Amino acid sequence: MVDEYQQLSQHRQRARCAVQHEREGYYHRAAEAWQSVARLAPNIAWQRWALLRASICLQRAEERLHARNVRETKLSRP
């Protein structure tokens, strides 16, 4: 019972860290954190959910990078 409680507590702490990175806009860090959460999740459904969050964060990071590249291209044109 203690091990289950400790495992759940650790899972929540890791997920909280991932959420914090995501809310602050650090999507690459959030994706890595969500992947860690998924690897160590005690439940298959939680693993799938964390992997989904990781893929969403990676997508957002790519979108942000693309938007930055477009902006820089427009600024560098004469």
Care to describe what's here?
There is one protein chain. With 78 residues, the chain is mainly α. It has one domain. It is 88% helix and 0% strand. Helix 1 runs antiparallel to helix 2 and helix 2 runs antiparallel to helix 3. The longest helix is centred in the last third of the chain and has 33 residues. It is elongated. It starts with a helix and ends with a helix. The model has no long low-confidence stretch (mean pLDDT 91).
Question: Top keywords for this entry?
Answer:
single chain; 0% strand; mainly alpha; 78 residues; elongated
Describe the structure concisely for a colleague.
The protein is mainly α and 78 residues long. The protein has one domain (2-76).
